[in-house]
Structures are given as C-alpha cells and as structure tokens.
C-alpha cells in the first residue's frame, strides 16, 4: 500500500542539520528533475525580491520566505515529517506514532512536493515556499514539469500494492495514475454532514485525511483493493461509502459529522 499526501504550505524551519543533498532522497530517478526545479527556484529567489514575491505569490508580510528559497542549497535540513506542518500533519502527528507505525510511514507514505516531486517522511529537506500552481522562469509550470517526470518513479514506489490517494486537486495534477492501475487506486473524499446535508469543507477534509493516515499506519493494515480499504476504514470506525470503479480508480466518501 502507498499513501500519497499533499504537502503543507506552512513549514517549520530547521535550526540545525546538514544542508540538502539531493542524492540522499527517496526515488533517485527524480534527481535531475529535482535539480531543475531547485535551480530555477534559487535563481528566481536570488534576484529581485519583488519579482520573486509576485511570481511565487508570497505576501509582503512573509518576505523572509524568499530568503529561505535563495539559501536552499546551504540551509539546514530536517526530516520531511518535521518540516511539513498544517492541518493534515497536525492530525497525523508523525512524532506521536508508535515505533511500528513510524517504520510503516517511511515505507508506505510519500508526500507530493512542488520542489521535490515526491518525498518520504524520512527524507531530509530544508524549508521552502513553492506552490503547486506556480510557474518558474526557465522551467514553466511546476505541475506540468512533474507530470513529465513522475510516472515511472511513482509506479516503482507503488509496486503491486494499493494506491490510497489523499492529495488535493492541485497536487493530484502532478501525476494521474493510468487506466491500467485503476483497479488498485482509491481516492478519498471527505464530506461534512450537517442536518442531512453534505458538503466538502477544507478543514474537515484535511484533518480527516491526516487521521485516516494515522489510523491505517497504526493498524498496520494492508488492503489491496479499494473495497478492502473501505472495509478496513469501517472496521476502524469511519463511515465510508464506495463509488463505482472508473478509469481513474474508485472514489471513497468518508462522512464526518464532527471535527
């Protein structure tokens, strides 16, 4: 089983640790593609800070993020599961997982990254600012760049297991599993139900996906089909409705009533 998570816009800034070494990251086949994004981002951020901020969508109140990008090659790095913060990662709480669940996370979880494509929670990375919808001078759209490079690496990471796709729409565009993988792809949508009315609410969606990931890692579950995943989640106490299988996989709706 492979769980794909979105990144977080907010990130902690490591205060110590060796600088980034792309050769140590998971999925080394992506090294050249990572270098291309890194070069483009550092070059942009080392120039006119106003241009960099406008290009990257960085608010004036967070201008220090441009400096972080400019120093990506020399800044301290830390495990990705300590760098990524935000609602998904607060709910998942990597630091409080059991030892067995932490080992499973390193083997079964990948985070989609605008800078690195895909990273393991155990990969050491610096803090950075780069949104999934960004366009970099000399590189083009980040999403298009990764669409051209992720397929082989993602398939290798998946192997013969089930893909549990928890990415948001922006990051799902980085790699879309082909129809040949559809029977082994489960996408998860979270719906908040109040008074019989269901709707997607961003905060509920993110927090629930973090908790689902945590539950699967702690349980040591290894479902091999979307139907088996739905049954596993029900056994773990979640309310799940399964849609019809399609060319892009099977959508599972997780229904929540409280945060």
Automatic annotation (TrEMBL):
Identification of the protein by name: Peroxide stress protein YaaA
NCBIfam families per record: PRK02101.2-3 (NF002545)
Organism whose genome encodes this protein: Nocardioides panacihumi
InterPro entries, per the entry: YaaA
